[in-house]
Every structure is written in C-alpha cells, then in structure tokens.
Amino acid sequence: MKRVTILSSADPRQKRGLQVVALTHAKSLRKYGLETVLFCPGTQYESFELEGVPVYTFAFQRRSSSLLNFVTMMDNCWRGWKRHFGKQEPDILHGHDYMAYYFLSKYLSKKVNKIFTVHDPMIYHHKMLGRLPQGSSLKERMMTHIENSVYARSSKIHCISEYTRIRIANKEALAPKLKIVFDWIDVDKFVLPVNKTQARLKFGFGSNDFVIYTLRGLQARMGIGNLIQGFKLIKDSIPGAKLIIGGKGALRNELEELVRCLDISDSVTFLGYVPEDEVVPRYQAADVVIMPSIDGEGFGLPVLESMACGTPVLATPACALPEVLSGKRERLFSGIFPENIAAGIMSFYQHWQANGSDANVERQYVLDHFAEDKLIKLILDDYGG
To answer: Where does the Glycosyl transferase family domain start and stop, copy by copy (predicted)?
Structure first.
C-alpha cells in the first residue's frame, strides 16, 4: 500500500476552501486504498483524526515580518515532521501549500515522488490581494524563488483549472509537467433535501419567498457589492425576493452601509460565518445561488456544493467559473457588473416561474462532470498506480 502525505495550508478543522479540498482529496485517496495523511500548520504540535483521515500539525503563528515567518515555518515544519514521522518517508508527497512543500520537498529524498497542486500561483495570488508592494522587493524575490523551486522539484504540477494554469508565470517551460485536475466534492455530504419546504421553513422562508443566496468571503474580488447593486435593480420586479449573504470578511461594514444607502435592508440579510452544520441546509433552502466573482476564483467549489444539493447556480463569466459551468453556459451572466447580474437573475426567475427547477438534474450535472472516480484516476496515474 502506497503511503501519501498531503500538505495543506492550515488546520482542516477550519473548513475553508483549500483545507476542504485537501481533506476531500485525502478521504478519496484512502477510499481507493492509499494510506493517506494530512500534514499542515496549526496552533500547536498535534495529531488527531478528522472524517477518517489522520491529521498531523506543527505549531505556527503568522507574524508581520515575512522573513521571520519564513524562518519560523521552516524550523517548525521540520520539527513537526521529525516529531510525527521520525525518519519515515512517504512514497508520495502531494503539496497544496507552497511553504511547507518548499521545505519538505528539499529535505526528503529523491525516492519520494513529489507532486504539487496549484490553486493560485503564489506571486499572482499575493499581487491580486495587494500583499506585494509595487516594484521588486525582498518579499517578492523570496516568493519568486519559493514558487520556482516548488515547480522545479515536482514531477507533476496539477492545476485546478485552465484559469489557474495560464497564470503560472513560466507555464511554457513547465508545460510537460502541467496537468489540469479539477476539484471535486464529497457528494455524500452535499445531498438533496428530503423535503425542500421543510428545509426552507428551518430558516423562516415561506412559499412566496424567492431566496437568492451566496456564500463568499467578504472581499472585493468576490463581487458582493455588484451583487447587492444588481439585487436592488430587480428587487421590486420579483415578489418576495430575499438576498442572503453568508460569509465574513473585512468589507462587511462597507457592504452593510451600501445596503442601507440603497434602502433594501428589509430584503438583505448578512449571516456572517456560516457554521458547518448549516452549510448544506442553507444551499438546500435557496432557490438560486449566485457566484458574482470578479477575480481570483481558481475553481469555484460552491458551484458544485450548491448543485449537488439540488439548487441552481448563476455566475459571472469570470475566472474559472465558465469552465465549471461549461455544460450550462446559459447560467453565466453577460458580464460582472450589477446590470449584468440583474438581467441574469430576472431571466432565470422568469424561466423558474414558468418551469420550476429539477433538483435531480442539478445534482446529476455534478456527478457527470466532476465525478470523484474520474478525477482521482488522473491523480493515481501520476502516483504510479
């Protein structure tokens, strides 16, 4: 039995995007007979089991100095590895996090097959979020070295979308290593509601409500401001329209002020952090889920999560969303702006009024296009079996 260590960027109990993907991969690999564990930074040196996957953490707390972060993570990562695994090496080291992979791919022997999954290229991601100053800097040079070293040490580089692949700076030179492997979800977790009416009543939605839901980090690149303005344009044309916004982030106060200025506070609800036990029920209770992304959406897991729960998704034609919805192009807005979003919602609503929506068809799209068995085979091929 091959032994696989997957490197994640943080404790998977946080259940954020990349951590969810790494945990899902680990669960799937174990299902297919590989002895798979997760290794990642946490608040302390710890070992535990999560959803059937052994998880090992090393202590790391982020500081303001990039150089201090680099040195501390390097030291603690190696200490954690020695503490948990001693001299034992896995057959495969599969990284989803640049930093831990950078350290371990250097120190583990050449016998270890090293594979890396790119969610967002490192330099691109930090520039997009405004974390790198204009022009060359020590931080940028460090990150460029780390990113290039990660790619150089990998036998294969998996990109979660074509959108991600084309943002790798030296993609032409790396072409023989690059391979697109879409994300997938746990379809045993994201399921159809037993009773849609009961799912809606749980959150106080009536039969006359048209529930528009989004689950996003409240950051500029997520496009929530455009969604709110688009909702304002259609609110009076859709009886019972409600916009429910799940997620937390730095822009919450600004977005709440926008809602007040548009005088739509009676129809817009900010949920803040959505607890794990509400994630699936919230999808199930909605009539439609919106992905208003502007930039940095390397894949778009909420599309699969929502549709697996039977709820249709509308999205901007940005980032990787056209790839994820390639079989449902009519679900893409004509642009990223409020008027595009408003027109798309109105068109969907009119069709929904006339024809309803078929939850089974929504779920089948996920099963057909993002099936675990097909995607895991792409990974197993690079594992050598």
So the answer is: 198-348
d(CA 21, CA 168): 20
* Count of domains observed in the chain: 2
Q: Is residue 201 classed as helix, strand or coil in its secondary structure? A: helix
Helices (H) and strands (E) in the chain, counts: 16, 13
Chain-wide mean pLDDT for the chain?
94
Contact 296, 139 (CB under 8 A): no
CATH number at residue 113: 3.40.50.2000
Residues 130 and 202 in one domain: no
Q: Is residue 378 part of a domain?
A: no
Q: Measured between alpha carbons, how far is residue 196 from residues 269, 276, 289, 358 in Å?
A: 21, 19, 15, 12
Which burial class, exposed, middle or buried, applies to 67 when counting CB atoms under 10 A from its CB (0-12, 13-18, 19+)? Answer: exposed
List of E strands, 10-164: 35-42, 46-50, 53-59, 92-95, 113-118, 156-159
User: What domain range includes position 67?
Assistant: 3-181
* 271 in the same domain as 150: no
Degrees to nearest 5, angle at CA 328 with 300 and 238: 85
**Six-digit token pair at 73?**
């993570």
376 within a domain of the structure (yes/no) = no
Residue finishing a domain among 150, 181, 212:
181
Question: Same domain, yes or no, for 325 and 351?
Answer: yes
In a domain, 190, yes or no: no
pTM exceeds 0.90, yes or no: yes
Tell me: pLDDT of 167 over 80: yes
Q: Which two tokens stand for residue 343?
A: 């027109």
Crossing angle for the helix pair 372-383 and 17-31, to the nearest 10 degrees: 80
Q: What percent of the chain has pLDDT over 90?
A: 85
Q: Does a structural domain hold residue 375?
A: no
And the tokens for 381? Answer: 């091929």
373's CB contacts (< 8 A; 6+ apart) are none
Using H for helix, E for strand and C for coil, what is the string for 215-246? ECCCCHHHCHHHHHHHHHHHHHHCCCEEEEEE
8 A C-beta contact, residue 179 and residue 156: yes
